[in-house]
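Hi R.,

Here's the chain you asked about this morning:
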Amino acid sequence: MVTVSVKWQKQVFSDIEIDTSQSPFVFKAQLYALTGVPPERQKIMVKGGILKDDADWSTLAVKNGQKLMMIGTADEIVRAPEKSPVFVEDLPEEEQAAALGHSAGLYNLGNTCYMNSTLQCLHSVPELKSALLSYLDNVRGTGVDQTSHSLTVATRNTFGELDQSVRPVAPLHFLQMLRKKYPQFAQQQNNVYMQQDAEECWTQLVYTLSQTLTSEGSEPTASQMKELFGIDLVSRVHCAESGEESSEAESVYSLKCHISHDVNHLHEGLKHVLDCAVCSILLEKGVEPKGKDFTCMFTSKVDYPLELDVYDFCSDELKQKLQAPRQVMRDAENAKFGLKVQGKTNSLKDIEGSSTSAGESSSMDIDKGSKLSYAVDSSIPKKQITGVYDLIAVLTHKGRSADSGHYVGWVKQDDGKWIEFDDDNPSIRKEEEILKLSGGGDWHMAYICLYKARSI
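And the predicted structure, written out as C-alpha cells:
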C-alpha cells in the first residue's frame, strides 16, 4: 500500500492510499469520488508519461509521499431540484381530476347505463354546466313542481362530482330523483330494475331542465335550454286541390332523423327528408339550429360526419347571409395551414351588418321542393353561425332492442381527444374509432349524436 497526494487544479488531496495489487483504474475511481472527474477524462502524470488503466504499479516506481498531478474536467454537479417532485396520487382530489384530463366515470347501479351515458353526453356541454351552477337549492321557479326542482339539483350536484372526483361517482341521488319524477324508470322484472331507453331518459331530462333553467331578465322568461338546444320547427301543409295552405310552428329539443333503407349517410338522410314531396308530418319539418347544440337520432346503419355542414339545406336568402361568416371561417382555416387567402376577408362588423336585426324571428318553411331555412342569430354579439356543426358527443347502443343491451357515451374533450365512458371505466379512444360507430352489426351503434354550432 502506497500513500500519495494528488494535485488537481488548485486543490491538493493528501494521504490517498494506492492498493498496488489492484489496477490503476481502481485508483482513478478513488479520484473520481473526490473530484468528480470521470476516469476516462483523467490524465495522471507518472514516470514515463500518463497513467494507463492497465499499467503495472511495480514498473512505475511510485513512492510514499509522492505528489502526482491530474488534469481533467469534472462532470457538472447534480443539484437538488428547487421543487420536490409531486406525484399525481399525492395531489388533492380536485387537482387530480384536472391532471387526469377527463371527468370521472359513473357506477352502474343496476341496468343504469342508459342514464350514465345520457349524463356523460350532456355533461360535455359547458354552457349547460354553467346554467346548472347558477341554479339555487332554495329557489324554485314559478310553476316548477318539487320533483322537477329536486331532479335539477341532483343533476347539478352530479355534474359537480364528475368534475371534482378522480374515482367513479355513484349517481344514487340522481337516480332516486329521476325515478321519483318519472316512475317508468323504476320498472322491475323479477325484482330487478329493467333496462330503459336512453333516448327517453335524454328527452325527459332535457324537458325537465327546460322547465327549471330560465334566463334572468327576459320577458317572458325564456328557457336557457331552449337557447342551447332549441330547434324551431315550422310545418307547412299544402292542399293540391283547393290550393289552401296551413302552417304550424313548434319548438323541440332534438331532431329525429328518420332514415330509409336506401340511405346510408346522415347528410343524405336529411336531404331526403327535406326534399321529400310526400312524407309524414314528422318528416315534413324544417329545422332551425337556433341554439348552440342539437341532436340527431337514428336507429339504422348510417354514417355520420365529424363536421356537419347544413349549407346545402339552406334557402337562397340564408345562403347569402351565411357567405360572409363562412368566408371568414375559410380564410382563418387557410391561414392556419399557410394557404393563400382568397379574396378580401370580411370583418365581424361587416358580417353583423349583413345579418337580420335583433328581435326578428327566424323560421323554416318546408314545402314541396323547398329547402331548410334559418336566419343568422344576430342577438349574440360578435357570434355568427356559419352553418357548420362539430360532433362533440355520441351516445351508442349495443344490442337488438332499445330496452335491452348496453349504452355507452363517447365524449370529445377540449384537447380534441375522445373518451369512451363505459359506466365507471373511462378510456381514451382515437377519432377514427368514433366514425366506426355507425352500426350495421353487433358493435356499438350511434343512437344520439350531439353537434355544436361553429360560430365566429
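The first strand starts at residue 2 and ends at 8.

Let me know if you need anything else.
M.
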